[in-house]
UniProtKB/TrEMBL annotation:
GO BP, sorted A to Z: negative regulation of DNA-templated transcription
Protein family membership: Belongs to the HrcA family.
One Pfam family per UniProt: HrcA
Organism: Frigidibacter mobilis
Function: Negative regulator of class I heat shock genes (grpE-dnaK-dnaJ and groELS operons). Prevents heat-shock induction of these operons.
InterPro entries assigned: GAF-like_dom_sf, HrcA, HrcA_C, WH-like_DNA-bd_sf, WH_DNA-bd_sf, WHTH_transcript_rep_HrcA_IDD
Matching Gene3D superfamilies: 3.30.450.40, Heat-inducible transcription repressor hrca homolog, domain 3, Winged helix-like DNA-binding domain superfamily/Winged helix DNA-binding domain
Database matches in PANTHER family: HEAT-INDUCIBLE TRANSCRIPTION REPRESSOR HRCA
Domain Heat-inducible transcription repressor HrcA C-terminal: 116-336
Name the record gives this protein: Heat-inducible transcription repressor HrcA
Recorded GO MF terms: DNA binding
UniProtKB keywords: Repressor, Stress response, Transcription, Transcription regulation
Amino acid sequence: MMNEGSRILAEMNDRSREVFRRVVEGYLDSGDPVGSRTLTRSMSEKVSAATIRNVMQDLEYLGLLDSPHVSAGRIPTQLGLRMFVDGLMEVSTVSAADRERIDATMGGNEPDVGSLLDRVGSALSGITRGASLVLAPKHEAPIRHIEFVSLAADRALVVLVFADGHVENRVFRPPAGQTPSSLREAANFLNALAEGRTLSELRSHMGREIALRRQELDGLAREMVESGMALWENEGGPYERLIVRGRSNLVGAAEAEELDRIRELFDDLERKRDIADFLELAEAGDGVRIFIGSENKLFSLSGSSLVVSPYMNADRKIIGAVGVIGPTRLNYGRIVPIVDYTAQLVGRLLSDRGKG
């Protein structure tokens, strides 16, 4: 079934299609409105600036172009960008230099997947000059043991030991008034539930058990259980699931009026909001997906674009995602293959580790 953008594109004549394509490409390249005089120098047929202006007015009427401020030039609207991406964009191949930089992050035999994904994120933001998002996989081995350790009045450590020998430690702020006995009670409660269960299985089971055993579980211990386990859904030092790198790239490229939007985006990323939605968004389509402006409800991205691709384990199950976020004038044709290549490489590497 043909969507609205495809229908409009199919009904355009060659001249309209070329004007539209050149306006979008010029805007993506420079970030500036593109005027009719500029286009007269690049069109494949000899046409006057007046003729091009008429075509641009028609495209504006269709909702594909817009005139910012008092500029004589045009920029693409969100609908225009979407139509360009879906129907006219030429996707390049990953350059040898970009491929080498991504491949270089995969070296090293350290057991910590987080360090590997951190390097991947840094390389991705450096190559694309956007901010990178890497969603790390959950550790899905069964849990062997859980322990809470008090470090100070306002700091505690939660230790997870998995059946495959993997250990994760996280420092967090415990609920006020914790005592040694409430720490022990919280750990005993979780260990009784955790045996043989993975972390995600424990999370779903825990809520029911807390509700059933509310009377016998001390209030402080219950708070400790909930705040300690919540770490694995949100951030937690080097073990955070959503790794964000390259924030400074967005600030450096932002116009003055964009800075408030960028700050709001950073606030959302700091809260690691909607991580589950981020993965669902990647799972909803195979391969790379592009979200332009308000199409993406994550992270208040009204003026930004997200290029995201899931990565899979050896069983072809989606376990995480990599993406690039930036202004709507991203170089989509270059970034799409980079994100795709990175996601496939990460998936292969984690699958190979799993066989070891």
